[in-house]
Each structure stands twice: as C-alpha cells, then as structure tokens.
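re: ur msg from earlier - yeah i can do the zinc ion complex, just paste it... oh wait u already did. ok heres what im feeding in:
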Amino acid sequence: MLAITLIIPISGFATETRIIPNINQSFSQSFNYGGPPPLPGDMSFPFPIHEVSENIEKISRRHNTDTVSRNDIIIDMIQQLDESMILDYLEDLVAFGPRVTETTACEQAGDWIYDQFQSMGLDVRYHSWSNSGYDSENIEATLHGLDQTSDEIYIICGHYDSVPGSPGADDDGSGTVATLAAAYIMSQYSFNHTIRFVTFSGEEQGLLGSERYAQEAYSNGDNIVATLNVDMIGFAEDEFEGSKVKVYHNDDSYWLVDYTDDIATQYEDLIDLDVLPSGWSWGSDHYYFWEYDYDALFYHEYEFNHYYHSPQDTIEHMNLTYDMKCTRLILATLATLSNPGGSSNPPDTPDQPDGPTEGDAYTEYTFSTSTTDPESDQICYKWDWGDEISDWEGPYASGETVESTHYWREEGTYEISVKAKDDNGSISSDWSEPIEIDIAGIPKVDIVIQGGLGVKATLTNQVDIDLEDLLWNISFDGGIILVEEGTSGIIENLPIGESEIIQTDKLFGIGLPLITVAVDDVEVTVRGLLFGPLVLIIG
Ligand SMILES: [Zn+2]
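and the outut:
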C-alpha cells in the first residue's frame, strides 16, 4: 500500500481534498478503522498518483449475470486452500528479503513467481513497463476460457514489491501469495471465461506497474469484467479482527461487493468472514483499473497491520488462518465469476502405481498406472512422489497405461500416488492408493584428495543424472595455516560419469591438519602433512 505526506486534490470520483497525516504518527493515533485505510508508502519522493486525463469510455461488459449458488467444484477448490499452502509460498517469497522495485531481490522474486506460474501449466508473460523513471516487470499468467464466444476476463492481483528494509510479508506478500495459490488451484480446473493472475511491481513507488498494465489493457480493448486486488490480508490479532474483511469499491463496482458478500454467505462454513463495504480508496493497484473505468475491488484486512512498512512486517506477525479465510473468499469469488466449465465427470481413481519398492538416491525409476474416463475423454495425470508433486502430464487416451519417471535426492521412505483429470474441464479424481519405495542414500560424487602444491581433489559423478550447481569447499582443522585462498566454489554442471578437479588457489602453512573436502552433502576427510605450500596426504 502507498502513503505520502502531500495534500492531493482528487476529482472524477469524489471531488474532495485529502489530508494525509504524517506517517510518523503511530497508526492508532491517526486513524479510526471505520474510515478509509491509511495510505503510507515509501515517502522519500513525491508520488505520481494522478487521474487519467484521456476520455475514458467504459468498455467492460458482463454477459451472464448468474446469481451466486453453492457449487461442489467451488467447495473442492476452497478445501484445497489451507494455511500450509499459504505458508509455503510466503516463506519462499519472503526469503528474497526486501523486494524494492528495480533491485536484484525484486527481480529474482519476479523470476520465481514466473517459474511458479509456468510450473502450473499457465500461459505466462513478463509485462515490462516504464513509468516515472522506473523500469520493471509485472508477471501475468493466463488460464484461457473454454467458451470461445466469451471475451470476458477476470483478474486477481497483488504486488510483489515491498518498501526498503521490510520483508513485506503482509504488504504485500499476502496478496502475491493469494494470487499464486488461486492460480495453483484454479489451474487444475477449466472455466468458461478467461482468468488472469497478475503480480505487479512499482506499487510502492506510486502504483507504477498497475498503471501501465491497466492502460495497456484499455488500449487493447480488453473486456476485463472484474479485478480483485488483494493488498494486506494477513493481519488480525484477535477473533473479532479475524472475522471481518474490508472491501473498497467505487460506485460502478458495487455489484462486486454484493457478489463477494453472497459468496461469503453461501460458503460461510468454509470461509467464516463478514464482508465490510468500506468505500473509496486509491491506496493500491485497483486504482488505475477504476481510472480506466474497469470494475474492481480492493480487499484489505480489518485491522491495519501495526508492523506495516517496517522490518517487523514478517510472517511471525501474520495470522495465517485469517489470511487463508480471506484468500478462500477471493478464490471462490473469482472462480464463480469465471464460471467453472466443462461439466464432465472426472476419470476414475487411477490404479495404484506399479514400480520398484526400493532403490538408490539420484537414480531415475519408472512407474506406471492407468484409469478410464466415463466419457472417454483424454486423461492427464499428476504424480505425488512424496518429495514433490509433478505438473499435470498428458493427455493420454482413456484406459492407456502411462509411465512417469522420478529420482529422489534424499535417503528415506516415500509414498507415491497419482490422480487424474480429463482434458474437458472435470475436477480431478481422488489420489490413488499409494505405493512405497525405500531410497538408500548414496554419495552422488566420489571425492579423491591429492596433495602436491596445495590441495587438489578429483570429483567424479557416480549417479545416473547430470549434477548441477555443486557447492564445494576445502577446509582445514589443525596445523598452522598462514595463507588459504580459493578454498570454495561451484561446479555448474558435472555430467554422468564425468570428473572435475578442484584445488586451492593459495595455501601456506605447517603442521598435520585434517583436510576436509565437501561437495554439497558429501564429505571426505584425510590427514595431511603441510610444509609451506606443499601438501602430502598421509592417511
Ligand atoms: Zn501494499
């Protein structure tokens, strides 16, 4: 969310002048939570927030105005969304650290989001933008609608950038994760209308990315019927705060307030939230959709996060159950609007996978299964390998025996199961009966340490797959080491059966140190005789 300490004349929606209190005042002093949200942000420069001056005509139109009714497919989707899914995504996103637009951390987070969307089988693109002296990318993933006659587009969005010094777990990790989780779940289904999952950058600098996005959509004549913008839905300190969600709207978008409120009522048992219509706000990425006359809602936590825009905006200060409930509401609203399509019956639960029940790490093994579809539709399969879940594979003919391969990195016992869906928009089947495999850990590289001028080691790939990004390190315990340089590095690629030699750059010392060569989780230690730059391996 944004903030400034400037006086801003706003027209077009409500001709009023807003005085934004100085951000240094503590929130509880400056705002009562019945009113519009505080609009803080990165205050080191003036904000380019403005009204769109062009003559804007409303281009969005919604063809079917079905009312909201309870639907099994929606229930199936909602039930897949739990706290652990949100936590997994949040931890990965926050691990990038503060994600200030144009910084490496922000770009890396964008690439990670891109990869996540891609792994879901969605149509993904970087939307590069320039605005107010900034250049960055929005990430957009599309699930195309089944109904070829429909041009309706529905959007869920959040911003993945944060302010300096803040991990931005709630602002706006919560919105970014809601977008990712909705994409992950909805990508397993089909819908009659097209859905876009969008994460913006440049929000904290003045809604820069979303302005360019809305502008491009308008100039392309995109029929965006509704945009659900999610910014800060993860903070609630008690049951009362955790039972309500604020929804900001303009007049044209009020039908969406009613819609999402109906969703909350229809799925009360699974969502358990009161929707609070909260009036107008320009404090997040929905704003320029309104400016281009698109209908949009802005979902925001009831109690404004007390750790907002600070180093303490961390996962620990979030309420994941509240976050999950809000995300379920937004997912169900988006999915219902997008009209789940292809009401075909799912394939039968696939056969228990057939394959080996024991093996070695880093060796690929093949498993097979089969099932049929009641309408003989083509079938896709998703494998749960116990350490990761595959993308949808296929399609294959109904009744065909299919194979898939996997290798495990870690020693352990893994349960493998598989489920199916048809390519006609069915929900997915149940997971099959699992099969278990015992995996023995084996050292993926053989390490042979040699002496001479410094320490050398020959690393040989001894598994059935090419090894990538191997981190190596040479360390000493004992002896007197006066100079040691170049004792660590990375091997980008070590193909099957191949060897590579690593060695210290500079070494000088005396004594009988233990010399350890480590490559990822594989280690070998020998005793060495060190005399100046010379090393003799003695055992
Ligand atoms: Zn924000």
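cool cool. The chain has three domains: 63-342, 358-440, 445-537. ping me if u need the other ligands too
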